């Protein structure tokens, strides 16, 4: 769903990944992580996903 919305203005794959990582950072902060840990977790998750985490773009 994130990609469907972000594609309106940011359809490049790099932008889609950025939007996905950003949304995961927000999700992690809302889940109680501080901003640095939230960012680290989001980037790590994106790296482990091999492009499947934000699939559907």
UniProtKB/TrEMBL annotation:
<keyword id="KW-0326">Glycosidase</keyword>
<dbReference type="InterPro" id="IPR036705">
    <property type="entry name" value="Ribosyl_crysJ1_sf"/>
</dbReference>
<protein>
    <submittedName>
        <fullName>ADP-ribosylglycohydrolase family protein</fullName>
        <ecNumber>3.2.2.-</ecNumber>
    </submittedName>
</protein>
<dbReference type="GO" id="GO:0016798">
    <property type="term" value="F:hydrolase activity, acting on glycosyl bonds"/>
</dbReference>
<keyword id="KW-0378">Hydrolase</keyword>
């Amino acid at each position: 769903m994130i990609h469907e919305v972000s594609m309106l203005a940011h359809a490049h794959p790099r932008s889609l990944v950025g939007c996905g990582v950003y949304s995961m950072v927000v999700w992690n902060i809302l889940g109680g992580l501080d901003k640095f840990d939230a960012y680290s977790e989001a980037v790590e998750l994106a790296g482990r996903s091999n492009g499947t985490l934000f699939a559907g773009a």
